[in-house]
Amino acid sequence: MTKQAFVTIKNAAKSYGKLEVLKDINLTVERGQIVAIIGPSGSGKSTLLRAINELDPLSSGEVWLEDVQINKKLPHRQYEAHVNQVRQNIGMVFQHFNLFPHLTVRGNITLAPRMLKGLSEDAANKLAEEQLAKVGLLEKVDEYPSRLSGGQKQRVAIARALAMEPKVMLFDEATSALDPELVEEVNLVMKQLAEEHMTMIIVTHEMDFAASVCDRVLFMDQGVVVEEGPPSVIFKNPEHERTRNFLRKHL
Ligand code: ADP
Ligand code: MG
């Protein structure tokens, strides 16, 4: 038997009606690897990322985390339980933070560990404080999201995802909605995770960040992976004209 990668995407396809958004995507990510996905708007990057944790289930193909198939076909009830279970292993960070506005930072971070993992209030609080300290925001623990800057909100969103102790983190343009001066503080948190060998799949428009943090870069266009390779190759010496065209506009 061949060794199973940490994250495996096999023959992934997704259509919305007649629109084929993903066409036969194959991707493997090893434990501790950091993969960047780049490509023009509308190329299917978010759809692919959202397929990994079943937010946008694939039309066909398979998604695996280690030896567990995430997009298993199951009767409704079993499917719900299965998805709740596997999502605990997959942290996701969105462009627009998606914090719960009516909960404090503490409430945002402790909710899932309490509800899904059954942690006590004390244990969840301790976890929240640890994760907040890690992203440098312990002093904001009792603040509401509306009183935080965009960069702080995104760091809280990262702390919230980390509090579930996920096996893999997905980032969908985590810094695209931020004012330029707030991008670096979020990038620093992601760099710190990289140093800790967190497995990450990062959709980004920031080519410098991708080049400095990621082990591999995938260039997607119109629902296909046009090419992939180490940043040194993709950014400096890409094989395909479509990649060169894209990079000309974004480097
Ligand atoms: P990207 O993240 O690379 O910008 P997306 O994955 O968001 O691209 O979108 C890929 C394509 O799928 C786009 O053409 C988009 O309009 C389409 N799309 C995404 N979500 C939906 C949806 N829920 N219904 C219909 N079309 C969608
Ligand atoms: Mg997107």
Automatic annotation (TrEMBL):
Q: Where in the cell is it found?
A: Cell membrane
One MF annotation (Gene Ontology) recorded for this entry: ATP hydrolysis activity
Q: What is the recorded membrane topology of this protein?
A: Peripheral membrane protein
Q: Which residues form the ABC transporter domain?
A: 7-247
- Coarsely, its chief localization is membrane
| GO annotations of cellular component type | plasma membrane
Keyword vocabulary terms for this entry: Amino-acid transport, ATP-binding, Cell membrane, Membrane, Nucleotide-binding, Transport
Matching entries from Gene3D superfamilies are given as: P-loop containing nucleotide triphosphate hydrolases (3.40.50.300)
Question: Known PANTHER family for this protein?
Answer: AMINO ACID IMPORT ATP-BINDING PROTEIN, GLUTAMATE_ASPARTATE IMPORT ATP-BINDING PROTEIN GLTL
The entry assigns this protein to a family as follows: Belongs to the ABC transporter superfamily.
Q: Can you name this protein?
A: Polar amino acid ABC transporter ATP-binding protein
